Amino acid sequence: MTSVHGTRSFGRGGLRVGPLSFGAAAIGNLFTAVDDAAATEAVRAAAGAGIDYFDTAPHYGLGLSERRLGAALGDRGDVVISTKVGRLLRPAAGAPSADSEGFAVDADVERVWDFSRDGVLRSIEASLERLGRDRIDVVYVHDPDEHFAAAMDGAFPALDELRRQGVIASYGAGMNQSAMLTRFVRETDLDAVLIAGRYTVLDRSAADDLLPACLERDVSVAAGGVFNSGVSASVEPRPGATYDYAPAPPTVLDRARRLAAVCRAHGTTLPHAAVHFPLRHPAVRTVLLGMRSAEEVRTDLDLLAAPPPDALWADLEAAL
């Protein structure tokens, strides 16, 4: 199957991905529950439409996202899959309870931070079992914000060893901040990063540090969180919209409304601009969108279908 709108190289291991990728946190019941049938339909609709990169993590639904993704994709060999290390899952003490980290699942296992070499190997082994695969293409060190030294001493050397052995094609880190990601780019030999929420129409901070470093070091970027958790997902941002998983401050809401007005003047919408904005940077190879249903897959594909007019970007810059 030909990927949506062609492919771009991703990492240095020969992988190629299309500009739109499937973020599988939503099918791990992020915020609201999705049933197995809807999750399967979303994954297969995406793969059938040519989306060829799927990102997941043990953290997403305490393994539910990985299990559903693996079951829906089966033995398809024409897709790229990434997962993450840093949170091991182990049986929880006591009766199952509601998960406290935003996923609508019963917590019969618990997350344990572990960036050691042994933790990385155990995490990957468990992910392979949940995914039903014998290989994972890309592995990210997940949210090591408070664990810089442990990631540098344990996780990255382990992943570098696995890449040299050919067990994985690429490795990197996935975070919601650009400063530490930039340090990893400069101080390790990773070849891919996932930056969430820091290179968007509303927050362009990664352009100051991370993206130049990635170009210099030949590191591929997947841009996630392009709607900043919701405020840019609506044609007209409204009170109560979320920004980075909290109510949007008035200043952010005002800025989003200014940008939405500029988009309208150019015959397009803020969500349309939000999807296309990161792809204009040469370091960014794909935009990662969460999809929880086949309908959302179709909506996201429609957003990607044609770029906004070139004149839009300068006017958006002026409106910030």
Automatic annotation (TrEMBL):
Molecular function via GO: oxidoreductase activity
GO cellular component term, pick one: cytosol
SUPFAM superfamilies from the UniProt entry: NAD(P)-linked oxidoreductase (SSF51430)
CDD domains in the cross-refs: AKR_FDH (cd19162)
Superkingdom of the source species: Bacteria
Residues annotated as domain NADP-dependent oxidoreductase: 19-318
InterPro entries linked: AKR (IPR020471), FDH-like (IPR044477), NAD(P)_OxRdtase_dom_sf (IPR036812), NADP_OxRdtase_dom (IPR023210)
A Pfam family this chain is assigned to: Aldo_ket_red
The protein's name: Aldo/keto reductase
Organism: Tsukamurella conjunctivitidis
